[in-house]
## 1
Amino acid sequence: MSLTNDQVRAIARLARLSLDEGEVAEVADKLANILGMVGQLQATDTTGVAAMAHPLDAVQRLRADEVSETDHREHYQRNAPLTEDGLYLVPRVVE
């Protein structure tokens, strides 16, 4: 898949990247290579392949769920401008 220079400029603008005119063609080639690799991955037949979270059958060692430090909430909330019932009060930002 090839990208036009205008598409590369639009992608760069969305990514907040500043590209010189000389870099646009180079970036377009690199993006085309990446999209080509993604196309190859999508063309792979994965029928019958079970999804997995990790490629190895490793088991995570678990530790006991024990309290390892004391509660410092009151100490930390003394520095906050507003608290109520153990919660931090903040200005409403969503209406």
Note: The beta strands are 83-84, 87-88.
## 2
Amino acid sequence: MGARKRLAAKERKEALKTQYFASLQNVPSSPRKMRYVVDLIRGLEVGRALATLRFSQKAASVPLEKLLRSAVANWEQKNDRKAEEGELYVTKAFVDEGVTLKRMRPAPQGRGYRIRKRSNHVTLHVGSLND
């Protein structure tokens, strides 16, 4: 690896030390369905976001609630203290498309219809407002 790439990698690694996030890979729901739920909590205070996810009827809210708790735990681990009420906010949250499993469903007259089983990757960043 060249010196320029090594320095850039070192800078990226140092930047990650000041960010508090959690990511979830290969969630077996479509990215569109997950984005509906992520849009509900983006920018909210963590306690309010957890309450929103707890009482949401969407199935995607269950893994997202677990992911948010993990992001808060990561923040607490890096700062060596508990997060106070109203201190943390969901600063960034985004959903990327994961792998798509392609399946076939029998159709009339010997045909086959394609089924695309989509998955997604979710990343949640938490932090205080003055960060």
Note: The radius of gyration is 19 Å.
## 3
Amino acid sequence: MFIMGTKQTKQILREQQHSNSSALLDEVKDKLQLLRDSGLSVKGIVSLLHVEKPLIQLFVSRDYRLFLGADRVEICMEPIVKAVYLLFLKHPEGIMFKYLSDYRDELTNLYALLRPNGLTDRAKQSIEDVTNPLSNSINEKCSRIKAVFMREVDESIVEQYAITGERGKTKKIMLPRDLVVWE
């Protein structure tokens, strides 16, 4: 009796999987062509394939910790990044980046709540940078926020949790506020 080694067995399994995947892909292509032949547009087919993920509730605790869903998955951010996020959460109407300096005091208060040891000169400079329309700091913070949510929610809904908006226009968190629970 011939006994195969582990490497050989794994290789055979991979080849079988590849063969099965190729056959399945060919079958899907045939079915898609049948849909096209029946008059359905590519856009229509894509819309059939798109399964929208449900939005997940966002909880903000008394001590400003952020949690997602019933499982209470914590969303961790650096204090300045979280302060920016909380500022935008508190302003569902959105904020234009060029007017962030108008929100400097509010951002400072939020940041101070997240830094129990007080605001150092460096922390104050971070606030100045974020609210300076000539600095790229706010864009960096928004990128970090999006990256955090990319790790926790489906890519199809991440824009709902991030700070988004067209360049030069109002930026906001699109998540419906009935899904934001403040303790």
Note: The two ends are 68 Å apart (CA to CA).
## 4
Amino acid sequence: MPLNLEALLAEYRPIQHDLFAEYVNPQLVKVLRTIGYDKTYVRAEGPFLYDQAGLDYLDFLSGYGVFNMGRNHPKIRSALKSAIDAELPNMIQMDAPLLAGILAKELLAKVGGRVNTVFFTNSGTEANEGALKFARKATGRPRILFFDHAFHGLSTGSLAVNGNTEFRKDFGDLLPGCMSIPMGCLDTLRKELAKNDVAALILEPVQGKGVYIADAAYYKEAEALCRNAGTLLIVDEVQSGMGRTGKWFAHQHFGITPDIVTVAKALSGGFIPVGAICYTKDIYSKVFRSMEECVVHSNTFGRNALAMVAGLASLKVIEDEGLIENAAVMGKKIVDGVNAMKPRFEMLREARGLGLMIAIEFGEPKSISLKAGWKLIHAVNHGLFGQMVVVPLMRDHRILTQVAGHHVDIVKLLPPLIINASHADRFLSAFEQVMTACHRFPGAAWSVGKDLAMAAAKASTKNSKLPSPPPHHLPEL
């Protein structure tokens, strides 16, 4: 008897969160219930999620940047159905799969620059792991430089170049030779490169944690310094790529030509995990040096047929539907709309970003009553104010957002690139109402902060802290 998926979902849906807590991750379920994110979604389409009552939720998180084309895009679904129906020979392993060659060719045309070879992976962190390996073997050097606050993944090698201590804590010794440097500081970079032992500098052109961007001139100068030192430049485009920032890849805003570019997330179309290491033939020749070493780096699922079809369909949808141009227009509309509210809301510091990779940052107010509330919240937990924004956005307006990291007053937006003006207006109207509530102290918004603070205090008595809403790369292992 074939699997009856509809019956299985109907049977277990009423206990969805209990089931997940029992067998997968009880701490995550506690977080979801604490902040009111414990919804039961039954359907997804475009920029929306739908619950059992048929209510829509505007998804401004897009699976941490996976759903650039929206959820369940019909053209990607159709392509995958065609691939299944074709009964393709898949994962023969001793093979040169046709679809992998086609996707590599198409992807490299979008990345441009120096790269001309692709190694396919299953995720962003795997792509970054491979990039680190390639850099060390190609250069014969041991050290890797990365930026403060960087996020390149959570597997051991990627974690070694993760600039956030909350992820590294208690995991012991990681990949040796990795060093954090300040983003934007050329003097530190120059000093370290002068030691002639740095294999690569790895960077996100737009940092996912906080949406921080260095000065445009820095990227060009950093590239020149790396070239002069014989150090490879690795650009992590796992979240910022695939049209997210208003260009195919974010580094293209700055006119740099990396030696390695890593890609994942939206390349999958939201269906089949796929990542890629795009690199130069020169690096290839130093890693895969002979027939004997033709699989010196390999994986099982990286070139599977469905993943390749998902990648090809995703590239075509982004191009055919003008999603890159739309990301630039809609991103500007949201950033300008939020910044226009700054004179009215003293805790609103700025909105920033590129395309539809946006951060909204808050700061301490000047008025006495609001300052008292601000200090009270931050005395308990430095991440609570961001939660005071994302919780009512979900509870009162059915808009899914996230805080941008641990212990920062930043809310991050990653809408699908398919959103239109009405979706942007819905967010701006909801955000304005939330800001109005936050600037009335005491008031309903501050009661949210009080409830979260009490939950944090309760959790601290059990030798733990209230976790922030899950960071944007957390599931990608």
Note: The domain at 5-69+323-460 is CATH 3.90.1150.10 (Aspartate Aminotransferase, domain 1).
